[in-house]
Amino acid sequence: MRIFAVIALCMLVLTPLNSYASEEKEKHPLYKKALAALVEENKEKALEFLRKASNEGDVESQFLLAMTLLDKKKSDEDNEEGLEWLTTAAKNGDFRAQQMLDLREKYK
Fold it and tell me: Which domain holds residue 39?
């Protein structure tokens, strides 16, 4: 599962967000707070912000929430929730989420 997280991090850093290379949109305020919490290594606070933004329909937050949950390695419950959010992000048009699901299926 660690390789899954490494690939996700590379995709997050190296690809334009939500495939809108020419359309930079304003980030959700809770997404920004979650990033700040992750920089401070406060995953629990980041998860709180990401869950709220994800439930409000923010696709970037859905993808980052999925990756954060899948990287936690705390429980099968986190993995299940992470996969649910990854699937939701993919259904909402996040190509990175779809790529991750495709990779997961390929390397099961």
Answer: 2-16+27-106
22 assigned to some structural domain = no
Q: Which residues of 5-42 are buried (b: 16+ CB within 10 A; e: fewer)?
A: eebbeebeeeeebbeeeeeeeeebebbebbbebbeeee
pLDDT for 22: 38
The CATH number assigned to the domain holding 83 equals 1.25.40
pLDDT (tens digit per residue) in 56-85? 999 999 999 999 998 866 667 768 899 999
pLDDT at 62: 96
Inter-residue contact 31 to 61 (CB < 8 Å): yes
Judge whether 62 and 85 are in contact, CB under 8 Å: yes
Q: Where are the alpha helices (DSSP H) in 1-108?
A: 2-14, 29-39, 43-55, 59-72, 76-91, 95-106
The answer to whether residue 95 sits within a structural domain is: yes
As for how many domains the chain has, the answer is 1
Total-model pTM: 0.75
